[in-house]
User: What shape does this take?
Amino acid sequence: MTTAPDPHTPPARADIAATASPAASPATSPAASSRRLTVVADQTPDSPAPAGCNSSSTGPDVPGEASRPRKAAATKAGADLCGEVLLTLARLRLATPRQLKALLLPHQQDTDHVRRALRNLLAESPALVGRTHRAQQSYWYCTPAGLAEAAASGELASPVGRTTGKCIAASKTGLREHGLALVDTVIAFHQAEMADHADWRVEVAHPTPAGNLVPDAVVLLANGSSAFVEIDRTMSYAGLLAKLERYDAYRNAPVSGRGNAARPPRNHWQETYAGPSLERAFPLLLFVFAPAKRRAAPETREAAFHDRARPNWRITVATTTLHQLTHDGADRPVWRIVGLGEGRRVLTAAPRPR
Assistant: This one.
């Protein structure tokens, strides 16, 4: 591939593993150009040929002949899955095999194919992924070599930098649980077809006069609009309200650039999210309250947040709990809008910011 895709255009599934596929584009990184991922087929093993069958025969009607293209297709599917796993870990920082299966192979009953792909990526030299074990669970992340491989594909919406996710996976301070809650949120939106898992960007800096605003994630929704997503497990109420003020500062940040005769100058959020004709409003701000040890229940923290938050009609703020989101679905009436009472509604019914 010679050009990077539009950051707001989801990549085609057939192309999502450019660096991992045997037919990868020649425009790859030094790490990718020296090898291709070794892949074990991730499909159901071929049935043995019937007795008396010559599987190497070239005759069109020989029963055993179909085994060869089936094996080739299985190998290609395995390569594609390795590429998708690598890209997903590069985007989301870390995930469990169960989470990867939910995103990439939702109709599979077990995680065998995903685990095989992870083992293949781990067996590369240098290894493209790493893992940490805690309480009989494995947490997977990209290594620096894996990030370079993923970046070289041109399939990532934004640069991934050098953050591998290793420190998050090994964290004992709640960072791992925070990261896993974000992945569960991604899964809920993906399953509800509200946003593809490839249309999420994690911890992207946004400039404000007081310094960068770094949301937990930014997602391009299926309707073409965007949303900022914040996962809360342990932050104080004062910290949450301060975060609202940071978003308001970003919304009102001075314009960037000088503009031209065709259009006036626009600030960062308009350049990034409003579209060429400013037809889109400021992105939704979504808070997902997740459980944490020795903290009030997510429902309690959500209610206290609404009691303290003042409506800002220039920004639409919607909240839910991780349990409601994953149990009922992101497209169901699980969202509570700041300033509009205790009732819950679907996200598409949220009011447009003024």
Summary: DSSP finds eleven helices and ten strands in the chain. Strands lie at 94-95, 129-134, 137-142, 200-202, 217-220, 226-232, 284-289, 317-321, 335-337, 344-345. Residues 1-76 have pLDDT under 50 and may be disordered. The longest strand covers residues 226-232.
